[in-house]
């Protein structure tokens, strides 16, 4: 029997490695920019075309490479950063496994132009699919210029499953920002299709954060500092009053390397316990500095997951440091007992003359239990207030139009349509409603009790209304007297242009001011009392969460975001007319049982279940 086991060719082995290291264009940006940082560059330029599918070019002024090094750099496991196994436990650089350039060259057309500092002439090498096409001297500037074209040209299945340009470019921005946040001493810029997206000059850490995410973040950051023999923690955390439900900026860095760590995230959230509402998330930019021998960065191909030798002590230090930062900032109410100086307490000086106690006149003959007293309690028949109430209510429900029933009701008019009353749509629903704890509406059925979550019911009604407006392109906008300015992060700004049309159909009126900023000139009718900036940011964040692949999903996300923001809140008292109006609109919606995100709206308690409780 012949042997069946054989060695894979290097080209195939590199393509397999590329599947782990190079997942998308953002992976190419990450590896090339990190190599530029390791090369000691002080200026790094990144040029992208078609979200990296056509071109990813990284230009740096680092130390460059010799002709031999330029050729060796594309060999698998070729590296200048480690020589022995012990070097793995003292890593101070980013790329060290020697797989990045080999993996990139296996699935793209790569051109490298590089010249060492002090050399008169550089080198140029072109590789496609792991095959060297040319290698020659080149008159190029000092440093390196990597040009990666036609990514996954020889792996069509991988290229087919890349996401939309908006999604891919947003991932590129995320990788670029992560590197920029730990290399504030390096001047960095990012261009997409010849348009400058980010230009970050050399600066301090706080200024680098502001340059990326906007000046509005400056007032929301609290300085974080903690030092011990085990770890040094520095950075910034957000104020408790600046938290948000989604889109929070949350970053961990260890020895200059970005990482994801759910355990340390819990430590931060523990420090905010009882200070922020449930479901809200704070911003944080936290930097750990510790002995490289106590961590392992080689447990994941992308090196975003790091294993700590002393996780629990670091957790405790981190939690205490965040709590201290919050306490020092006066972000929470405190009582200060350490008051400088003495408190002037008035002293009573008894005068020489005496005072007589005030006299009180009491009618000793008054007896409240005797009807013949001079005091007469006012008489009032409270039952007159409810006379004819049930008859009028029943007569009102005989009409088919909610507007005819309650023409003066404006509380929920923005979200409740003029549909038949609940008993004309569902005869078994009673017209009598009761609100329980400002959250649930209880009404009777022929077969039991119906319990309705008022907030979720209103979300369902508003969602259908906003989605209809988008599809019919007939949203109603309420213009603002003084426009508000909303500033997006670079990642968010890449998506906003594709959402403007749908936002306009809902009722938003936005105009581009440049530099990732938009003026909010109008809002959907009925949400005038809400924060316009938070409303728009939340809508864009929800659209980003969908992945921005299907237009219908984006519309649903926008409609749901606005519906949740505009819906009546739990705890809001409703009049009988408002409850009737809400129930009528709910039962005329496309789905009265569940919210658009699958949460239960109705719950039925049958007569049989009630009978069992009293046996």
From TrEMBL:
It comes from the Bacteria. Keywords: DNA damage, DNA repair. One of its GO terms (cellular component) is mismatch repair complex. GO terms for molecular function: ATP binding; ATP hydrolysis activity; ATP-dependent DNA damage sensor activity; mismatched DNA binding. Residues 209-327 form the DNA mismatch repair protein S5 domain. InterPro entries: DNA_mismatch_repair_CS, DNA_mismatch_repair_MutL, DNA_mismatch_S5_2-like, HATPase_C_sf, MutL/Mlh/PMS, MutL/Mlh/Pms-like, MutL_C, MutL_C_dimsub. SMART domains: DNA_mis_repair, MutL_C. GO terms for biological process: mismatch repair. The keyword Nuclease does not apply. Belongs to the DNA mismatch repair MutL/HexB family. This protein is involved in the repair of mismatches in DNA. It is required for dam-dependent methyl-directed DNA mismatch repair. May act as a 'molecular matchmaker', a protein that promotes the formation of a stable complex between two or more DNA-binding proteins in an ATP-dependent manner without itself being part of a final effector complex. This is DNA mismatch repair protein MutL.
């Amino acid at each position: 029997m012949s042997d069946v086991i054989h060695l894979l060719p290097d080209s195939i082995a590199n393509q397999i490695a590329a599947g782990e290291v190079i997942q998308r264009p953002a992976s190419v940006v990450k590896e090339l920019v990190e190599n530029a940082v390791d090369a000691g560059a002080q200026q790094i330029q990144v040029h992208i075309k078609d979200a990296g599918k056509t071109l990813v070019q990284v230009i740096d002024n680092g130390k460059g490479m010799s002709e031999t090094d330029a050729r060796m750099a594309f060999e698998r496991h070729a590296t200048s950063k480690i020589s022995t196994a012990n070097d793995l436990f003292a890593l101070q650089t980013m790329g060290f496994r020697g797989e990045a350039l080999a993996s990139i060259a296996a699935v793209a057309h790569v051109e490298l132009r590089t010249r060492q500092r002090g050399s008169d002439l550089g080198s140029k090498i072109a590789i496609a699919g792991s095959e060297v096409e040319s290698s020659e001297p080149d008159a190029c500037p000092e440093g390196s210029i990597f040009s990666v074209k036609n990514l996954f040209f020889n792996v069509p299945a991988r290229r087919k499953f890349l996401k939309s340009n908006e999604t891919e470019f947003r991932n590129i921005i995320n990788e670029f920002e992560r590197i920029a946040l730990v290399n504030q001493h390096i001047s960095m810029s990012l261009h997409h299709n010849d348009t400058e997206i980010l230009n970050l000059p050399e600066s301090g850490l706080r200024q680098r954060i502001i340059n990326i995410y906007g000046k509005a973040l400056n007032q929301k950051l609290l300085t974080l500092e903690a030092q011990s023999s085990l770890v040094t923690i520095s950075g910034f955390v957000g104020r408790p009053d600046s938290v948000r439900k989604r889109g929070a900026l949350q970053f961990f860095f260890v020895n200059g390397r970005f990482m994801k760590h759910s355990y340390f995230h819990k430590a931060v959230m523990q420090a905010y316990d009882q200070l922020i509402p449930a479901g809200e998330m704070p911003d944080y930019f936290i930097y750990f500095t510790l002995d490289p021998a106590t961590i392992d960065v080689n447990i994941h191909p992308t090196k975003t997951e790091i294993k700590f030798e002393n996780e629990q002590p670091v957790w405790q230090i981190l939690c205490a440091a965040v709590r201290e930062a919050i306490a020092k900032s006066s972000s929470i109410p405190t009582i200060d007992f350490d008051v400088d100086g003495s408190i002037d307490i008035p002293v009573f000086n008894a005068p020489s003359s005496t005072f007589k106690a005030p006299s009180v006149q009491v009618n000793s003959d008054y007896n409240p239990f005797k009807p013949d007293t001079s005091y007469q309690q006012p008489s009032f028949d409270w039952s007159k207030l409810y006379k004819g109430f049930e008859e009028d209510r029943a007569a009102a429900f005989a009409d088919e139009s909610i507007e005819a029933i309650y023409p003066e009701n404006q509380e929920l008019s923005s979200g409740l349509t003029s549909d038949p009353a609940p008993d004309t749509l569902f005869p078994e629903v009673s017209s009598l409603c009761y609100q329980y704890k400002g959250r649930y509406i209880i009404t009777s059925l022929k077969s039991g009790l119906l319990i309705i979550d008022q907030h979720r019911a209103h979300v369902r009604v508003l969602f259908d209304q906003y989605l209809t407006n988008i599809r019919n392109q007939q949203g109603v906008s309420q213009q603002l007297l003084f426009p508000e300015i909303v500033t997006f992060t670079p990642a968010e700004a890449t998506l906003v242009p594709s959402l403007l049309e749908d936002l306009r159909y809902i009722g938003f009126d936005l105009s581009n001011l440049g530099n990732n900023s938009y003026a909010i000139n109008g809002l959907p009718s009925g949400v005038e009392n809400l924060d316009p900036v938070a409303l728009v940011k939340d809508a864009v964040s929800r659209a980003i969460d969908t992945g921005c692949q299907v237009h219908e999903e984006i519309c649903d996300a926008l409609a749901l975001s606005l519906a949740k923001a505009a819906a009546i809140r739990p705890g809001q008292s409703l009049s009988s007319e408002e409850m009737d109006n809400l129930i009528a609109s709910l039962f005329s919606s496309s789905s009265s049982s569940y919210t658009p995100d699958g949460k239960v709206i109705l719950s039925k308690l049958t007569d049989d279940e009630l009978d069992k409780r009293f046996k």
